[in-house]
Specification:
The protein has 19 helices and three strands. By secondary structure, it is mainly alpha-helical. The protein folds into two domains: 257 residues, Citrate Synthase, domain 1; 108 residues, Cytochrome p450-Terp, domain 2 (Orthogonal Bundle), CATH 1.10.230. Strands 1-2-3 form a three-stranded antiparallel sheet. Strand 2 and strand 3 form a beta hairpin. Helix 1 packs across helix 18 and helix 6 packs antiparallel against helix 8. The longest helix has 27 residues. It starts with a helix and ends with a helix. The protein binds N-hydroxyamidocarboxymethyldethia coenzyme *A (HAX). The site of N-hydroxyamidocarboxymethyldethia coenzyme *A has 20 residues, from loops. N-hydroxyamidocarboxymethyldethia coenzyme *A binds next to loops.
Amino acid sequence: MKLIAAKMAEIAETMRVERKQMAKQHEETKIGEITAGQVLGGIRGVPAMICDTSTVNPDEGLRIRNIPILELTKAQPEDIFFLLCTGAFPNDAERTELHDMFTRNSSVPYYVWNVLEAMPRDSHPMVMLSTAILVMERESNFRRAYDSGKAKDKMWMYMLEDSFLLLSRITTIAAAIYRMRFDKGERIQPRTDLDWGANFAYMLGLPDTNSRFTELIRMYLVLHSDHEGGNVSAFTANTVSSALSDLFYSFSAAMNGLAGPLHGLANQECLSFVLELHEKFGGVPSDEELTKELWGLLNGGQVIPGYGHAVLRVTDPRFTAFYNFGKQNCVDDKVFGIVDKLFQIAPKVLTEHGKAKNVWPNVDAASGSLLNYYGMTEFEFYTVMFGVSRAMGISAQLVLARASGAPITRPKGLTTPGIKKLLGMS
Ligand code: HAX
């Protein structure tokens, strides 16, 4: 970890000094106002934390370190992790070191398998992932360093060590969960000669004669790697870690948030919706049939899965990346055909309906159909795929939080009588 740690040490020093100075000089400087609507609406849009890894603008979507995500679709996930942490791409020597850090701990200790094997057979794959990560907490370098009294300004280094431990194992664990949970046969042992994405695709054990599945997995990992700090899973991880809980506690908690239907579980629901349409119409419905079907959903008080977003007001560029991949590789597939048809029809219907602030597709509208095309038909597993990818962004965010000396998170809670009084209602 020598080269990466050296680069991070410079960054950490600058971040720590800057943060301290800003906090001291601008303790009372106002940078915004909060409305009652925001307090009552899930702290929506309140600028309340520092997140340097990525930004999400309503009219453009995700940028990683200020680079639009559509310019990164061919990047290696390992390079993206380096970019998230440092703001730069690795040079050749750093890339070699990264490969070593992503593979050196990819064998998972027996006790993790024992715990997973003892779980009920119908456990949700996300419960298995979160549990497997939590039981590895005993190996945390961060916790050991804290217990032995290491200086606070060096703690980022142990968070980075834990990040590599997590990243090198999470693909092995996720692939094993897939194989155990869906009766795919024995676990497939990790290889050290493959890159992170290729190794993950290999351990999942799905057929991949032309390497397109591997290509998809690499892109999937990159597209889902990060989405700013305020989403439920990243915010949870930041909050847990702000108490100086280590990465295993923090990331396991993040996965419990990601498992929610309004967050990471949505991708499973999107494919399920597309498959229902496939079943009902015996293939791709006509424009008229689909329009009628969507109005039926809306009139019944339901949402169109895969459309709308809490922040975005344009087509999610991550959808565009998956959609382009599908257009190149899956045109013969009826399920992808329905995704394509929905893209033509759903925005018109939602515009006419007039309720959704964003009528355009989000990332979940297309990702599942591509995994399904390559044989990963078990959509209960899709949130695990999301979680594996997000391990990069969340780890990077927590390394940077420790590097900058971020304090414990402690927003103020209001009582209902308290807010009523502030609003002049009592
Ligand atoms: N279909 C029908 N109605 C929709 C809609 C959709 N796809 N998207 C929003 N609306 C409705 C909302 O339900 C809301 O109605 P009410 O006023 O009756 O409550 C109204 O339009 C305004 O909502 P909004 O401000 O545009 O959207 P929110 O920020 O409240 O919600 C959601 C964002 C993503 C949860 C929402 O668009 C939705 O439910 N979409 C469908 C499910 C989905 O695709 N989820 C994946 C999200 C991607 C993600 O972040 N994954 O992690």
